[in-house]
Amino acid sequence: MSETFRPDNAEQLRDVLAWAASGSKRLEIVGSGSKRALGRPVTADHAVELGALSGISLYEPDELVLSAGTSTPLAEIEAALAEKKQQLEFEPPDYGPVLAAASGVHGGAPDKSNPQSGTLGGVLACNLSGPRRVKSGAARDHFLGFTAVSGHGTLFKSGGRVVKNVTGYDLSKLMAGSWGTLAVTTDVTIKVLPAPEKTRTVLLFGGDAVTGGRALAMAMNSPYDVSAAAWLSASLAARSPVDLASARKAPVAAVRVEGFGPSVEYRCGALREQLGALGATEELHSANSIRFWREIRDVMPFASPGDDRPVWRISVPPASGPAVVTALAAEDGADAFLDWGGGLVWLAVPAGADAREDAVRAAVGPTGGHATLFRAPSELRGRIPVFHPQEAAKAALTRRIKVAFDPADILNPGRMYAEY
Questions:
Q1: Mean pLDDT over all residues of the chain?
Q2: Domains of the chain, CATH where assigned
Q3: Which residue, 46, 172, 194, 291, is most buried by CB atoms nearer than 10 A?
Q4: Cα–Cα distance between 231 and 210 in angstroms, integer?
């Protein structure tokens, strides 16, 4: 009979994992459950819920460091940081609405009354980053240290409160993106940074993905310290709740600038002059700019109620993004937008037996990128590879790392790859 374990502290979690390892009992590791629909469906004998491992244990604004239990809600973290005018620089996304929209539960524009879902440990385990990644790096680049329990049932620590304390193997980088398959963190330490005084966004209207990609490249290569760059097709731009972005019902390239007021104003003016050679421009000020980038961050263009199309998350070199969009979004019922200056393609495809896997892999392969099946029914996620297939050498290395941390395959078995 399946049981659900709810450890109150790291020692109890260690005991649960040691028991599971001794009998090869497979465990699904759950924080808030907001990311259960990501990755392959887990095949487990029991569940371990980490909700009790919550709360901010250390926050030193002057030192730009915060430690918290792995299941601390992101909303709680962001509220504490906002009081000190600080933020999580990697801009963690909230995928709750876009995942729920496909199930018909809810969708639509984000609401201030519905705070950021998910947990700090969950976003680090999946290495999830928002639009500011082009400037500030991924979640793993802000992950300083942690305490965790391995699949051996061994409690261990890695890293410290500052980057220079990290000696030997930087295991934080390994845990970020392991999806809970190597160890279960009990508390984590992250770097935080000051929030910008002002945020503005330059919009450029018209043009296909290639023209949009050219605009993004111009902005990213400019001296104006751009913190985000995205492109939306006409149909997706029309869904935006930000009037200036949606009113023209035309494709839109968007470039964000943040910082001190006079500097932001100057840089936006310079970008509008530069990009104006490609088409008409507009400018979003703070409130609308923040709302627009929250939409991009959370993949809200695909969160309309009832939009149950499979969605791919495709990472490629920025110069390749427009061509991938052109190749894959041409089919009726498909649509796409670009983030990370063209390096991240979000692609929705018509429902089908294989979510167009062969076409997606074929388009991405020559670029050296990788494609992840982000949203799809569990049956489909269990049948085709969710994560990009690895070449033999990388697969062997991945397996050796898995065996080192979790030899009995008890942690989130099958979450990333069918064989473990």
A1: 93
A2: 4-194 (3.30.465.10), 198-297 (3.30.70.2190), 309-383 (3.30.70.100)
A3: 172
A4: 10
Instruction: Kindly provide the b/e burial profile for residues 11-46, where b requires at least 16 CB atoms within 10 angstroms of the residue's own CB.
Output: ebbbebbbebbeeebbbbbbbbebbebbbbbbebbb
- H-state helical runs in 254-376: 261-275, 286-297, 321-328, 357-364
| % of the chain at pLDDT higher than 90 | 88
Alpha carbons 323 and 338: distance in angstroms, whole number = 11
Is the Cβ–Cβ distance between 222 and 172 less than 8 Å?
no
Contact 375, 310 (CB under 8 A): yes
pLDDT (tens digit per residue) in 90-123: 999 999 999 987 654 433 443 444 567 899 999 9
What pLDDT, on the 0 to 100 scale, is given for residue 117? 81
Asked whether the predicted pLDDT for residue 163 surpasses 60, the reply is no
pTM: 0.94
- Looking at the DSSP bridge assignments, the partners of residue 47 are 4, 28
pLDDT in tens, 214-224: 999 999 999 99
Return d(Cα 142, Cα 368) in angstroms, integer: 26
Element (H, E) at 259: strand 252-259
Tell me how far apart the alpha carbons of residues 315 and 90 are, in angstroms, rounded to a whole number.
17
Is residue 277's pLDDT more than 50? yes
For 289, the token pair is 């700019």
Task: Give dist(CA 27, CA 45) in Å, integer.
Answer: 6
Task: Report the alpha-carbon angle 351-355-361, nearest 5.
Answer: 155
For 166-208, write each residue's pLDDT tens digit: 555 689 999 999 999 999 999 999 999 999 999 999 999 999 9
